[in-house]
UniProtKB/TrEMBL annotation:
Source organism: Lentzea roselyniae
Pfam families: DUF5914, Rieske
Name of this chain's protein: DUF5914 domain-containing protein
All residue ranges annotated as the Rieske domain in the record: 45-134
Signal peptide from the UniProt entry: none
Keywords tagged on the record: 2Fe-2S, Iron, Iron-sulfur, Metal-binding, Oxidoreductase
Residues that span the membrane, as ranges: none
Length: 320
């Protein structure tokens, strides 16, 4: 029978007395996992942000893989996307307006309805309810897929929050950070304790399985077992497979802005089958800022990791 209170009092050694993990975090193992991840098909789909970023009547502008992209809601709130440069004189369409589902350029009033117009190119777009995606076939260079490759998510009634941060790195550096679970309790002692990698990827099961306690305050924490997988080349997903919040997901998406600049878009989708979780859903709006804060706190450190890796690779000093 599950305990009514999910919190636990835990014990862990002081930071400097933890068992070193550097011998476990084998560079060849991490690199092999990264190569398998980056070889998977994406169908040329890129995460552009949270679904809540694209609201009715407003234009949302992004730079993805060096291309200006605009997104807006067309008729019946259907997600639309296209090139961010007006085909008339090149005005920035991110400064445009939306009326009747059309995107209207502010320079001369050219209205675009999501269909090709002259040199202006519409892009396939997808709203999965948490994130919005854009398909850029020229940038991706892969065989296009009709929809992005999505991981398994918890059922309806979950609470989601999306945090976005920008780093001086490439997507592979972000993915590599997540494929090194051993750094958790050393690099993030304020959040993790008693971290132990139970399984590393094998030919049959390409995942990391990690036992860890999420620290809350003092010696109070929540122990869980989490699985890390890569469904496509720019995404790492953590599924809680045992413990409190089983079924919850954290999706880390790395979207290239341009060479050496990457947006980390992290979606946390919290779920619990405890009766009390239903009471949290009506106040989800108040919980989302806290969830975003927690994700941003971790990624301030993890971007330093990713940026360091990028700098070493750029200078030819990354350890073999």
């Amino acid at each position: 029978m599950r305990n009514r209170i999910p919190l636990r009092i835990y014990s862990s050694p002081p930071w400097r007395e933890q068992r070193p993990t550097w011998q476990d975090a084998k560079p060849a193992l991490i690199e092999a996992a990264l190569k398998r991840a980056t070889a998977r098909p994406s169908g040329n789909w890129y995460v552009a942000g949270a679904s809540r970023d694209v609201v009715r009547g407003k234009v949302c502008g992004r730079t993805i893989a060096g291309r200006e992209v605009v997104l807006w809601r067309g008729p019946h709130d259907v997600l639309m996307a296209g090139s961010g440069s007006c085909p008339h004189l090149g005005a920035p369409l991110c400064d445009g307006a939306v009326a009747g589902g059309d995107l209207i350029c502010r320079w001369h009033g050219l209205a675009l309805n999501g269909k090709r117009f002259g040199m202006w190119t519409p892009y396939p777009a997808h709203d999965d309810g948490v994130l919005v995606w854009v398909r850029l076939d020229e940038a991706g260079g892969e065989k296009p897929l009709p929809a992005p490759v999505l991981p398994a998510r918890p059922p309806e009634g979950s609470i989601d929050a999306v945090a976005t941060l920008i780093g001086r790195c490439d997507p592979e550096d972000v993915v590599a950070n997540r494929l090194d679970p051993w750094h958790g309790a050393w690099f993030h002692p304020y959040s993790f304790a008693n971290l132990r990698v139970l399984e590393t990827p094998t030919g049959e099961l390409d995942r990391f399985l990690v036992e860890v306690t999420f620290r809350l305050a003092g010696r109070v924490g929540v122990p869980v077992v989490a699985a890390f997988t890569c469904p496509e080349p720019r995404t790492v997903v953590m599924h809680i497979v045992e413990g409190e919040g089983e079924g919850s997901v954290v999706e880390t998406h790395a979207t290239p802005i341009r060479e050496g600049r990457t947006a980390v878009v992290e979606a946390t989708i919290a779920h619990s089958d405890r009766p009390g979780f239903a009471l949290a859903r009506p106040v989800a709006g108040a919980l989302r800022p806290v969830m975003r804060w927690a994700a941003a706190r971790l990624w301030r450190d993890d971007l330093a990791y990713a940026e360091r890796r990028y700098a070493l690779r750029r200078d030819g000093r990354f350890p073999d």
